[in-house]
Design goal:
Blueprint (H helix, E strand, L loop, with lengths): L1 E3 L3 H13 L3 E13 L3 E13 L5 E4 L8 E3 L4 E8 L31 E9 L4 E16 L13 H10 L9 E9 L2 E8 L5 E6 L6 H17 L6 E7 L4 H9 L3 E4 L6
Helix pairs in contact: 3-4
Function: Cleaves both 3' and 5' ssDNA extremities of branched DNA structures.
EC number: 3.1.-.-
Organism: Natrialba chahannaoensis JCM 10990
């Protein structure tokens, strides 16, 4: 169900029905956001998209970025009610009855639709947290009843890339022999530790996507750390494996005597 530009009480009733049905509820409009719990935060009025999930999660999104500007985790309790707008009853309209419930005496009726403020509340008991979203203008309310039994399957990870090389070492180079994975050094764990066909130690750093200078610096640190661990006569090679590298990274690889092999995490 979707309502466009509903009155506050119509929006309240639709949201309450969605919460009762354990539906996914979304609200878009101009609102303020107040959080109190492990810290305190306030967001002045702005156009925002709020999502209330059946598992108790609450998300507040703006028109920028992928992360919510405020959120509550699963397990929270959601409530919705209307308050008189500021000045409508001689009060500032900024506080509920303090009980955290939408059933308080301040909840307005259909006759107050032109002056009411829609309030969404998400509360958590342990730790004690409260997210309060007050809408001055509601542009859209939607409720969705759905199920999702599917499980997320990741592909194209660094683990996939590691497994490709372990299964077919010649993808790195002919004669390469993997000896260990996640070998500890003072600079961190080496993704793949092995030897080439000439018996030289090879340090392999894996990246699942195009990389820049930071990846080269990381590989250099591993090579330097391993040189300190091994005997003085040991010859080490460092190979960065990724789908591609930037021009600057390619220059740094040459400057440090390191190598690059282009390889995708999967063969698809």
């Amino acid at each position: 169900m979707t309502l466009e530009r509903p009155t506050p009480t119509a929006a309240r009733d639709a949201i309450a029905d969605g919460l009762d049905r354990e539906a996914l509820v979304t609200v878009f409009g101009r609102c303020t956001v107040d959080y109190d719990g492990r810290a305190s935060s306030q967001l002045a009025a702005g156009d925002r998209h709020v999502m209330l999930k059946p598992d108790g999660a609450a998300l507040v999104h703006t028109d920028e970025g992928q992360q919510p500007v405020n959120w509550q985790p699963p397990g929270c309790a959601h409530d919705v009610f209307c308050e008189p707008a500021a000045g409508a009853d001689g009060s500032d309209g900024s506080e509920t009855d303090g009980s955290g419930s939408g059933s308080g005496s301040d909840d307005v009726t259909a006759s107050d639709t032109d002056t009411a403020t829609l309030v969404l509340e998400s509360t958590r008991s342990t730790p004690e947290e409260r997210l309060l979203v007050c809408f001055q203008d509601v542009l859209q309310v939607s409720t969705f009843a759905g199920t999702d039994e599917g499980e997320l399957t990741l592909s194209g990870t660094e683990s996939d890339l590691r497994d490709r090389i372990l299964d077919s070492p010649d993808l790195l180079e002919s004669g390469f022999t993997p000896l260990a994975t996640e070998r500890d050094t003072s600079a961190g764990a080496i993704d793949i530790y092995g030897e080439d066909d000439a018996g030289r130690t090879v340090v392999v750093e894996l990246k699942r996507r195009r990389v820049g200078p930071d990846a080269v610096s990381q590989l250099r640190r591993y090579v330097d750390a391993l040189e300190r661990d091994l005997h003085a006569d040991a010859t080490l090679r460092g190979i960065l494996v990724a789908p591609s590298v930037t021009e600057r990274a390619q220059r740094l690889l040459g400057e440090h005597g390191l190598e690059f092999v282009s390889l995708e995490p999967t063969d698809e």
